[in-house]
User: Fold D-alanyl-D-alanine carboxypeptidase from Levilactobacillus koreensis.
Amino acid sequence: MGLSRVKGALVALLLTTTLGTAVGTQVTAQAATYTTVSSKSVTKTAYHKKSTSGAIYNQAHSRKVANLKTYPYTTWYVTKRATLRHGNSKGIYYYVKNTAGSVKGWVWHGYLKKGKSPFGLKYAKNAIAMNYTTGKAVWSKNANTARPIASVSKIMTLYLVLKKVDGSTAKWNQVVDTSSRGLISMSQNSSVGGFVFHTGHKYTVKELYDAALLDSSNNAAIALGKWVAGSNAKFIQQMNAQAKSWNLGNAHFVSASGLENSDLRPYGYAYGSANANMVSAKDVALIARHLIKDYPRVLTDGAVGSKTVDGQLCYNYNNLLSGRKYAQASLNVDGLKTGYTPLAGYCFVGTGKMAGKQRIITVVLHDENEFTETRSLMNHVYKSSSMAE
Assistant:
């Protein structure tokens, strides 16, 4: 074997030596030498990150496993402790694992704080959990900050539709004017439409209500708004007037559908000077509370997984409903509305009622995992808060 191969083999041997093998073992990490001064097992103890600093390394301290800041709400369980020498200094390191055991390694003890991690949502920028019965927030994150909410906006549109219908079968069966070229063109563009308006077809209020609620059709929502108020502009004025009557201080609407004006402008439905509906998570939850309280049928309607309307499949994208990917039977989720635009991110207002508990309303805005985080939030509230009937 050549000299270079001998050196390579020695380096490889050093890099694969574990921290706890023996006192005095040296390993090479990024041109720095770590020496294990002592190592021992300790009673399993819960810790969480102390700040945004710090990283977890493999046993050889030659490879970074994870940055602690990417796990802001993770509880780490310490089972080993080692004193390592690095140059002229020594430090105490903990061997940690997350609950699932999927992330594990060594971290300097100063980056951790004893105790389980407090509950939090990693991805949602704004969120709230509200007790439906009392209207009080039981958990929140930046809940009073207004931001774009995409198609979650439709819960206000649907409220005003139901308000006009007022239980009248005759009004449910009224035909809505869908002849607008802009709406027809929008309906044929899958990125902004949803439910296709076929030229010459007649659509009832109930059909467009189902298309807007289940399939989140933007053109259906706009057409319904025009039916309610006579024009798109007048309807948006009604949306803002309704928000004002409820004292929603962080809610301003420029769109019946939740699409931004930058998307609506080519179809002739831009309104106002702002680009998007701007509503806080708290105000979204309050709108949802009014909708459920005044028109409880929305829970039955919103729990439908899919429905054929005028030959078109309207698919409900609420993946917390029974039988769906993220469903949890005990939460009994029966609503309410999804939303997404690149500007707003993934948004979701959900509601459910655990047996023996009060109904909960949750909102997550600009999320990446809206259903898993909603499920986690619901479980946390039911476990930690007084929500008994």
The longest helix spans residues 370-384.
